[in-house]
Design a protein that fits this description.
four-stranded mixed beta sheet; globular; alpha+beta; Glutaredoxin; single chain; about 10% strand
Length: about 160
């Protein structure tokens, strides 16, 4: 009788220990998946709710890195109305935006829900008039004369 109780208790203890170890192993991963899903949802909602979105380090008024500053300067100079998202203020968004776009760097520009590119791509598009065409095609208001001045200054 005592042997049966002991073996049952040992079996139950082993089961509890296994469940506990499993929860330690799976817990953070499940939490991370949940956090990334939440971040992806927030990113998706922001990108779809706004015509132009720039995920950047800092804000459009106060960029916190040179690459973000360059893209914000182009958009500000040509008068594009855009939503800025400061990835430095939210680590989940900072990590999540890279997965969302499958693009490893920040800043990231979205127009009408579509990822356009980072600093180098946006700079090249501004200099080649492709950014003008993208905005025109999507009905995004911008100052064409200011865009021309950027090209003239960099010719």
């Amino acid at each position: 009788m005592i042997e049966e109780l002991c073996s049952g208790a040992v079996a139950k203890a082993a089961e509890v220990a296994t469940d506990f170890v499993s929860s330690l192993h799976d817990g953070p991963s499940k939490q991370k998946d949940s956090v990334m899903t939440d971040a992806k949802t927030r990113i998706d909602e922001t990108v779809k709710a706004n015509d132009v979105v720039l995920y950047m380090k800092g804000t459009k008024e106060m960029p916190q890195c040179g690459f973000s500053s360059r893209v914000a300067a182009v958009l500000n100079y040509i008068g594009v109305d855009y939503t800025d998202v400061n990835v430095l203020a939210d680590e989940e968004i900072r990590s999540g935006i890279k997965e969302y776009s499958d693009w490893p760097t920040i800043p990231q520009l979205y127009v009408k829900g579509e990822f356009v590119g980072g600093c180098d791509i946006i700079t090249e598009m501004a200099l080649s008039s492709e950014l003008d065409a993208l905005f025109e095609t999507n009905g995004i208001a911008f100052n064409k004369e200011a865009a021309d001045k950027i090209r003239e200054a960099n010719a």
